[in-house]
Amino acid sequence: MPQSMRAVEISEPGGPEVLTPVTRPVPQPGAGRIVIRVDWAGVNRPDALQRAGAYAPPPGASDLPGLEASGTVAAVGAGVAQWQVGDRVCALLPGGGYAEFAETDAAHALPVPDGMSLREAACLPETFFTVWSNVFDRGGLQAGERFLVHGGSSGIGTVAIQLAHALGVRVFATAGSAEKCAACERLGAERAINYREEDFEEILGAEGGANLILDMVGGDYIPRNVRTLAPDGRLVMIAFLGGPKAELNFAQVMAKRLTLTGSTLRPQSDLAKARIAENLLAHAWPLLTAGRVAPVMDSEFPLEEAAQAHARMETSSHIGKIVLKVAGGA
């Protein structure tokens, strides 16, 4: 490996313009860890939060943004037996994806699914780890249940719709335009709700309520979600684009025996993330290999144009994932 690499750092907390191309030393793998030669890196909402100074890296992680990447294994640390130099992987990262090389726990990497490009594979880790752990592990979604996904056209939303549909769930989604609603229905939602024109409470209420809601909006959606849930329903929060606070009638929670929960991925232990990776390999990767689930791609930008990628993401006009082209492998 070379001694230095191209990277993009956060020069100071702020808007997309603070993302600055730099040269950094290449990381070296610690015990149980690997270094990936990055071809493509995914762009995610937590990257923007970190850029704004609201989502600090965990202790010991790279200060560079970027929570997922695809490429080839460039080096392995002591005790790593499952990967060899040259293996094609995609991986969840604690940080550092906006660079030519990135280090991560060996157990947080997954093989690139058969027939999938590295460009597509860069879209998998952050969204699939988040969706599987929150919707299926924490939320306990089962075949035949009614599942409401807010932000259905986002990277998270497109994955949640597809996985749930493939596993026999009745999927509903909210989105902000006719184009986005049509995209959700193509992916497997039986009904996409334009939240600018329709009331998801009314529509789900006519169906008997939602058994599970995945929400990244928060704010005034929280009490509306509680009213929308069916008895014994579950609300899983993963972000708060509309704010983290709301006034809530807990008598409704008690009367309907509801479960309100949520999580963030990055601060979880290495062991917890490794267990999610095992579940993905067993349950989601066969769906990817069979073509029943696929990443939805919005756009790509060169690494040095990470600021433009963030600006695109923050317009919320995208459908699916935005990626950075680092080395450009197929």
Radius of gyration: 19 Å
Tally the helices: what do you get? Answer: 10
Q: What's the order of the H and E elements?
A: EEEHEEEEHHEHEHEHEHEHEHEHE
Q: What overall form do the CA principal axes indicate?
A: globular
Largest sheet: number of strands, sense, barrel closure = 7 strands, mixed
Secondary structure: number of strands: 15
Range of strand content = 25-35%
Supply the CATH class of the largest domain.
Alpha Beta
- CATH architecture assignment name of the largest domain: Alpha-Beta Complex
Give the N-to-C terminal Cα separation. Answer: 20 Å
Number of domains: 2
Question: Structural class, please?
Answer: alpha/beta
Which fold name fills CATH's third level, the topology of the largest domain?
Quinone Oxidoreductase, Chain A, domain 1
Helix content: 25-40%
CATH superfamily of the largest domain: Medium-chain alcohol dehydrogenases, catalytic domain
Low-confidence stretches are none
